[in-house]
Specification:
With 198 residues, this protein is mainly α. Helices cover 61% and strands 0% of the residues. It has one domain: Ferritin. The longest helix has 32 residues.
């Protein structure tokens, strides 16, 4: 069960519109390494985790990622509110505008719509936790790239916060993987599957 707090985890107060930047940041909403895929990945993987603490970790992080999705959506909305036709054209936002006006739609920065194919759920604890480590690093890289291209301090403060959370999630998944390997035994350096490997 989730409890929804009607406030963002980090405040978003962007003063200037910038459709070009919004068209890049949308990738963290529904891109290949974005918050939508992360939240659904973790909330789906939790069911097959063999230990309650792993299930709890995936629930916690998956829920937090839903909050990050809301933050990214707010950034995109604030960057595109009240755009004039000239700003839409000059900002390269016209193709997006044709399909979605200024609605927040889950897609890659390249324009490809979000797809569940971007998230991995295998039902194997080691494979899923390893995937989660990689997913957090890919999201961090995307945030790094946004920071390289953004000169808006109002946006950058929020992006830095989200980037830091990716690093924390990476650390938590690393701890979870180590604890899982410890529970499987010292012989399990390569994370063998006890069902098949004797």
């Amino acid at each position: 069960m989730f409890v929804y707090e009607k406030k963002l985890q980090f405040p978003v107060r962007i003063k200037n519109t910038n459709p070009r930047l919004a068209a890049l940041i949308i990738s963290q909403y529904g891109g290949p390494d974005g918050e939508l895929g992360a939240s659904l990945r973790y909330l789906s993987q939790r069911y097959t985790m063999p230990y309650p603490e792993l299930m709890g970790l995936l629930t916690d992080i998956g829920t937090e990622e839903l909050g990050h999705l809301e933050i990214i959506g707010t950034i995109v909305h604030q960057l595109t509110r009240n755009l004039s036709e000239e700003q839409i054209k000059a900002g390269g936002f016209d193709a997006y505008f044709i399909d979605h006006t200024a609605g927040v739609f889950p897609q890659f920065a390249s324009g490809t719509p979000w797809t569940a194919a971007t998230m991995a759920v295998t039902g194997d604890t080691i494979a899923d936790l390893t995937e989660d480590l990689a997913a957090e690093q890919k999201a961090r890289v995307t945030y790094d790239n946004i920071l390289r291209l953004s000169d808006d301090p109002d946006v950058n403060n929020v992006i830095r916060f989200l980037r830091e959370r990716e690093i924390v999630h990476f650390q938590r998944f690393g701890e979870a993987l180590r604890k899982t390997q410890d529970k499987l035994g010292k012989k399990n350096i390569y994370a063998i599957n006890p069902s098949f490997d004797k």
